């Protein structure tokens, strides 16, 4: 302060000198800008289901339709396998269940010049598919529920394979020997169709394995 008589005049405030190190030591205001964040999108409590048909769920709610589709699909695949089986070297010719059924249904059908009875074949093929679908219905609507609930595809396949092995055994043990005597197919099938050759017996079982696997995959509900 300077004194001037009785009054004192206040001295000017001292200015802060710059730092000897060359920068200002006063606290600087932060220049950082807040980062932009996108607003969170709320997710619905229940997500929308994907489009399309989920076959196991459909079969759960529509056992009859599922059994019919499974029976037709399984019979179609097994029938093709029967016509192609001789390519595996197991049999000398195809395993034609349509012919077998036709011989039973229309034994007096007239053959054409090539020795082929067209009406006999069509009658046998229609009855063949009818049988395949009826057996599938019996499996799906009677046997399957009787065995209780199932939760896996492997357990469903085990059930359908059991059905297929039963039908194969019935075919070799009774159907072929009883309904196809020597005067029809030219040879006596013998016990368990052994006289037709082990290749034929093996072919019958493989045919039913294909049918059973297809049946178990098509009719595959998850309880």
From TrEMBL:
It comes from the Bacteria. Residues 25-38 have a biased composition (Low complexity). The lineage of its organism: Bacteria, Bacillati, Actinomycetota, Actinomycetes, Propionibacteriales. It comes from Nocardioides turkmenicus. Residues 1-38 are annotated as: Disordered. This is DUF1440 domain-containing protein. The keyword Manganese does not apply. The chain crosses the membrane at residues 64-86, 129-148, 160-176, 196-219. The keyword Acetylation does not apply.
């Amino acid at each position: 302060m300077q004194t001037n008589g009785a009054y004192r005049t206040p001295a000017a405030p001292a200015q802060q000198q710059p730092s000897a190190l060359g920068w200002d030591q006063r606290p600087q205001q932060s220049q950082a800008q807040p980062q932009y964040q996108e607003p969170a999108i709320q997710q619905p409590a229940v997500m929308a289901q994907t489009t399309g048909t989920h076959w196991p769920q459909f079969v759960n709610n529509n056992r009859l339709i599922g059994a019919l589709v499974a029976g037709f699909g399984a019979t179609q695949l097994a029938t093709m396998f029967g016509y192609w089986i001789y390519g595996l070297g197991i049999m000398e010719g195809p395993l034609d269940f349509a012919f077998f059924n036709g011989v039973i249904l229309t034994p007096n059908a007239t053959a054409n010049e090539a020795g082929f009875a067209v009406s006999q074949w069509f009658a046998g093929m229609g009855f063949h598919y009818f049988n395949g679908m009826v057996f599938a219905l019996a499996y799906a609507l009677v046997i399957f529920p009787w065995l209780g609930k199932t939760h896996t595809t492997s357990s469903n396949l085990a059930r359908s394979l059991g059905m297929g092995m039963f039908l194969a055994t019935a075919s070799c043990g009774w159907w072929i020997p009883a309904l196809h005597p020597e005067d029809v197919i030219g040879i006596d099938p013998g016990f368990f169709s052994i006289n037709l050759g082990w290749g034929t017996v093996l072919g019958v079982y493989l045919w039913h394995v294909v049918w059973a696997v297809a049946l178990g995959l098509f009719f595959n509900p998850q309880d």
